[in-house]
Specification:
Shape of chain A: globular
CATH class of chain B: Alpha Beta
Strand content of chain A: 15-25%
Distance between the termini of chain A: 40 Å
CATH architecture of the largest domain in chain A: 3-Layer(aba) Sandwich
CATH class of the largest domain in chain A: Alpha Beta
CATH architecture of chain B: 3-Layer(aba) Sandwich
Largest interface: A-B, 51 and 44 residues
Strand order of the largest sheet of chain A: 6-7-8-3-9-10-12-11
Number of strands of chain B: 12
Radius of gyration of chain B: 22 Å
CATH topology of the largest domain in chain A: Rossmann fold
Number of strands of chain A: 12
Strand order of the largest sheet of chain B: 6-7-8-3-9-10-12-11
Oligomer: heterodimer
Order of helices and strands of chain A: EEEHEEHEHHHEHEHEEHHHEEH
Chain lengths: 323, 339
């Protein structure tokens, strides 16, 4: 097994609209070690979900790759023909739990039938064998086997999410992309699902990409955190480098963390980031965050900062951090 | 309940219940008697003038139904709602309209709660028309400008000609707030007003709502599942579970010294942005999910998930809210032993 399961190199993915190209991912590079959880965080529209579907080689239309590489276990998947992707990569090596997937289960099919469909599309096995496998995986996610004969409306939100997770796992992928897997759930159910994901990761020796807008939740699950802003990486560091005592390096991460309400600490006033994320058709000159940044200076307005290592394993794209 | 000495109660809810009868198919009508969905099952609370009162609960706890009852969008099965000391439970249509002018609502989804073909000016003018406030164009214009200024959408003239799709989620929620303020309400019911807004701007909207509340002396009923914003935003909190209030008190008391095992579990489950948790499987004091409100457990309705459950919790009558002093109430029979 290779040390690095995924390498993304200078990936560019643009949405071509009538108004121009929306640069949803603009020169993004990172890698993911086997067995690691990498968190992707940022505001809506920063490119998190585009990254998720982009890694599966299924960008939602009108999205197109404009450059870069995605290496899954060392093999670039961008030039592969669709047939190859289906046979070898999508769901087989890389699978995804989509945002809101639990509400996309077909209401007129039983859970068993829906799971069977996925399985038969990819594996030639007889029905009894397939049923056993489905029941086995339902067991892994903590659901009773008789769920197969129930309809989605008979299940609670937490149970549906478990079904979706089981479906994402039973083709034995190596990497699972989780896009806001707990956002629509209540806090206690969220904690249950997070515990489940941690256990499954160990059992099946998985690697995760965990996409969320919630920095507090990310702290509980991710070994490394990649903060995205306006289609670019703002900061990437270990859990300790982002949440530790010294605090994050990038002003954007700093403000985002300050805007995260903390239950256990009494605050008189919550901080927020003024303004809104920029338009990605014509992003601002210089650093894309400069119009909202509290540490902005002349250079930020004219020159875009590169993503640079500021200490071992800690990347940031901010002129202030390089001083 | 609560201190009756405090005369300045704007809204009082007295043993309010709302039971829904589920739709039944033809064949089912031969079967067993249908089960009632007891969405709100006997709740009482008071909101004082100028206060921000938070109603907290998971989905299925009945918090949104309570909001609808307070708004008089639906009629209660039993119980009373008193507004400014007057019983408004069964008022006529005309009076209900006047009540709704005074008690306004901010909805969760700022994308769905506005007509996309209306300009912001029209969005704000509509309530004036419905309530026949004034026919004078100048006066209307002044009101629109004033309410946009109150929610800090400045300069207001810039926003009046825009369509909702030209605004961000945060700006839309400001318009939604302005739309309520234009009628000079006394109280706002806000059902998850920031849950669909980006984290970075969520605090901005809460700040704005708090400023407006202070400036205009408004009272809020803030309905949410999010304890973290409730702690910051509210003065008092009532925690709901399956249609009942299980704990109520000052926001800080509830979060720092929760008495009911359910409140404790809710707090326990909230993630904290700090290091050293990645390899930890969090110990959750309660398991399972909230039962269906059509099948409420007997006795204390929380007993099926409670880690401190004793036979009497199941067998004896449901505990009423008990006073801990300082306006802190809880409904756990075993409170003394578990704290």
């Amino acid at each position: 097994m290779s040390e690095t399961i995924l390498q993304v190199k200078n990936l560019k993915l643009y949405y071509h609209t009538s108004k121009g190209a929306v640069k949803a991912l603009d020169d993004v590079s990172f890698d993911l070690k086997t067995g690691e959880t990498l968190g992707l965080v940022g505001e809506s529209g920063c490119g998190k979900t585009t990254m998720g579907t982009g890694l599966l080689r299924m960008p939602s239309p009108p999205g197109r790759y404009e450059g870069g590489q995605i290496l899954v276990e060392g093999r670039d998947i961008l030039p592969l023909p669709e047939r190859e992707i289906r046979k070898d990569i999508r769901w087989e090596k890389v699978s995804m739990v989509f945002q809101g997937a639990m509400n996309c289960l077909t209401p007129v099919y039983t859970i068993g039938k829906q799971m069977m469909e996925t399985l038969q599309e990819h594996r030639s096995m007889d029905k009894a064998e397939a049923q056993d496998l489905i029941k086995e995986y339902l067991g892994y996610v903590g659901l009773p086997a008789d769920v197969t004969s129930r309809y989605p409306h008979e299940l609670s939100g937490g149970m549906k999410q478990r079904v979706v997770i089981a479906t994402a796992l039973f083709l034995k992928p190596r990497l699972v992309i989780l896009d806001e897997p707990t956002t629509a759930l209540d806090v206690i159910v969220q904690a249950q699902i997070i515990n489940l994901l941690k256990k499954l990761k160990k059992t099946f020796d998985l690697s995760f990409i965990f996409i969320t807008h919630d920095l507090a939740l990310e702290a509980e699950v991710s070994d490394r955190i990649c903060v995205m802003y306006a289609g670019k990486i703002a900061e990437l560091g270990t859990n300790e480098q982002i949440y530790g005592r010294s605090g994050p390096a990038h002003p954007y991460t700093e403000r985002l963390l300050a805007a995260t309400p903390r239950l256990r600490r009494k605050v008189e006033s919550l901080s927020f980031i003024p303004g809104t994320p920029p338009d990605l058709i014509t992003p601002p000159e210089g650093c894309r965050f400069h119009p909202r940044c509290h540490k902005v200076y002349d250079r930020c307005r004219v020159e875009e900062p590169p993503v640079r290592e500021i200490e071992p394993g800690h990347l940031a794209a901010c002129w202030r951090c390089f001083e | 309940m609560s201190n009756g000495i405090d005369g300045d109660v704007i809204l009082r809810v007295d043993d309010l219940k709302k039971h829904f009868t589920p739709h039944q198919g033809f064949l089912q009508s031969f079967g067993k008697t249908r089960k009632l969905v007891r969405a709100v099952d006997g709740i009482s609370f008071e909101i004082r003038r100028g206060e921000i009162f938070g109603l907290i609960g998971e989905s299925g706890s009945g918090k949104t139904t309570t909001g609808k009852l307070v708004m008089k969008l639906i009629d209660p099965t039993s119980g009373r709602i008193l507004f400014n000391g007057r019983d408004v439970t069964s008022i006529g249509r005309q009076e209900a309209k006047e009540y709704r002018r005074q008690v306004q609502m901010i909805f969760q989804d700022p994308y769905a709660s506005m007509n996309p073909r209306f300009k912001i000016r029209d969005v704000l003018e509509e309530p004036l028309e419905i309530h026949r406030i004034t026919a004078d164009r100048k006066e209307r214009e002044t009101r629109i400008i004033r309410s946009l200024t109150e929610v800090k959408l400045t300069p207001p003239e810039d926003f009046m000609g825009r369509f909702p799709h030209m605004l961000s989620g945060g700006q839309r929620q400001r318009v939604a707030t302005a739309r309520t303020l234009i009628l000079n309400p006394a109280m706002l019911v806000a059902d998850e007003p920031v849950s669909m807004i980006d984290l970075s701007t969520r605090a901005e909207i809460l700040h704005m709502m708090k400023d407006v509340q202070r400036d205009l002396g408004l009272t809020y009923l803030y309905i949410t599942h999010d304890l973290s914003t409730a702690r910051y935003f509210t003065d008092r909190i009532a925690v709901m579970y399956l249609g009942r209030i299980v704990e109520m008190g000052k926001a800080d008391d509830i979060i720092d010294r929760p008495a009911h095992p359910y409140t404790r579990a809710l707090i326990e489950a909230v993630p904290e942005p700090s290091t050293g948790q990645v390899d930890v499987i969090k110990e959750l004091p309660i398991s399972g999910e909230i039962p269906s409100p059509s099948n409420i457990p007997p006795g204390c309705r929380f007993h099926t998930r409670c880690p401190y459950m004793k036979p009497e919790c199941k067998e004896e009558a449901e505990p009423e809210l008990m006073d801990l002093g300082g306006g802190h109430y809880h409904a756990c029979r075993r409170w003394k032993e578990i704290s």
